[in-house]
């Protein structure tokens, strides 16, 4: 009896994940098309567009990008939950990867009057990662630094010891020791202060980021001296051994 129930549950779970994946695919395609057309209109491919319309179209494009990001996060979650290996690994320069995420987020930081700085050693070895997924994980962490900080800013530091370490420090709302343990495991759970400071948060970013980092054989954890004391996120990625 118990075995049969277990099998039924497993089947249901697989059906649910497949349903979610199919739905997300059908969401992502039209969203990507929408973003493409808005970009072409903004670039003047269909004629001159006045400044006021351009400003509104930029909001439209930003919202579409946010939706695409969310759909991607949900898609990743269901794939990880199905135990699928979803990484497409290639060799990349870590600085280029981190820099591209920082540049993507620079307008967001500038709008809040926050600094956003990269510190790096003179040379770093290449890393073997899935660039899109790795960037998604980094984006979530750096974006949190910006969203949960009201004054000061965010520093992203790259370091090499036996592994590659990426440290993201902010001067924001901080968190309790208990919270810094929980944030990677719980979906949709958010801190009270976090909801106040960043109403648009969804509580899925760190869960998916930690799954992505773990799938790369890495580790991620958070530290904070407490409320109002800022937070530091550490991300460790093993380096390939020299042959
Ligand atoms: P979201 O930011 O959308 O709520 P996340 O999974 O990225 O979802 O983060 C989960 C929770 O962890 C946040 O709601 C917040 O309470 C806390 N958190 C994450 N990053 C930070 C940070 N840099 N500073 C303070 N709290 C943070």
Task: Chart the SSEs and their pairings.
Blueprint: H1 2-42, H2 51-81, E1 90-92, H3 94-111, E2 115-119, E3 127-129, H4 131-147, E4 153-160, E5 163-170, H5 177-182, H6 192-197, H7 205-215, E6 219-224, E7 231-238
Parallel strand pairs: 2-4
Antiparallel strand pairs: 1-3, 4-5, 5-7, 6-7
Helix pairs in contact: 1-2, 2-7, 3-4, 4-7
Mind telling me the C-alpha Rg? Answer: 20 Å
Q: Which range best describes the helical content: under 10%, 10-25%, 25-40%, 40-55%, 55-70% or over 70%?
A: 40-55%
CATH architecture of the largest domain: 2-Layer Sandwich
Structural class by secondary-structure content = alpha+beta
Give the SSE order as H and E letters: HHEHEEHEEHHHEE
What name does the CATH topology of the largest domain carry? Answer: Heat Shock Protein 90
The total count of strands amounts to 7
Look at the structure and name the CATH superfamily of the largest domain.
Histidine kinase-like ATPase, C-terminal domain
Q: In CATH's first tier, which class of the largest domain applies?
A: Alpha Beta
Q: How would you describe what is shown here?
A:
With 243 residues, the chain is an alpha+beta fold. It folds into 2 domains: 2-81; 90-238, Heat Shock Protein 90 (2-Layer Sandwich). Helices cover 53% and strands 17% of the residues. The strands form 2 sheets. Strands 2-4-5-7-6 form a 5-stranded mixed sheet. It has a two-stranded antiparallel sheet with strand order 1-3. β4 (153-160) and β5 form a beta hairpin. α3 packs parallel to α4. The model has no long low-confidence stretch (mean pLDDT 90). The site of adenosine-5'-diphosphate (ADP) has 21 residues, from α4 and α7. Adenosine-5'-diphosphate binds next to α4 and α7.
């Amino acid at each position: 009896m118990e075995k049969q129930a277990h099998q039924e549950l497993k089947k249901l779970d697989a059906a649910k994940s497949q349903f979610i994946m199919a739905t997300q695919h059908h969401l992502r395609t039209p969203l990507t098309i929408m973003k493409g057309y808005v970009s072409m209109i903004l670039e003047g491919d269909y004629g001159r567009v006045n400044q006021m319309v351009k400003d509104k179209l930029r909001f439209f494009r930003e919202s579409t990008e946010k939706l695409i990001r969310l759909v991607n996060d949900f898609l990743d979650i269901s794939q990880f939950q199905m135990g699928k290996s979803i990484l497409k690994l290639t060799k990349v320069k870590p600085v280029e990867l981190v820099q591209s995420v920082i540049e993507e987020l620079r307008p967001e930081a500038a709008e809040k009057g926050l600094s956003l700085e990269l510190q790096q050693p003179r040379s770093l070895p290449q890393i073997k990662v899935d660039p899109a997924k790795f960037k998604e994980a980094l984006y979530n962490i750096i974006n949190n630094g910006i969203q949960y900080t009201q004054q000061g800013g965010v520093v992203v530091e790259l370091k090499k010891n036996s592994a590659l370490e990426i440290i993201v420090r902010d001067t924001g709302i901080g968190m309790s020791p208990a919270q810094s343990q929980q944030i990677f495991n719980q979906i949709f759970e958010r801190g009270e202060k976090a909801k106040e400071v960043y109403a648009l948060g969804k509580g899925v970013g760190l869960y998916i980021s930690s799954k992505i980092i773990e799938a790369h054989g890495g580790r991620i954890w958070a530290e904070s001296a407490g409320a109002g004391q800022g937070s530091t996120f550490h991300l460790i990625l093993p380096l390939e051994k020299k042959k």
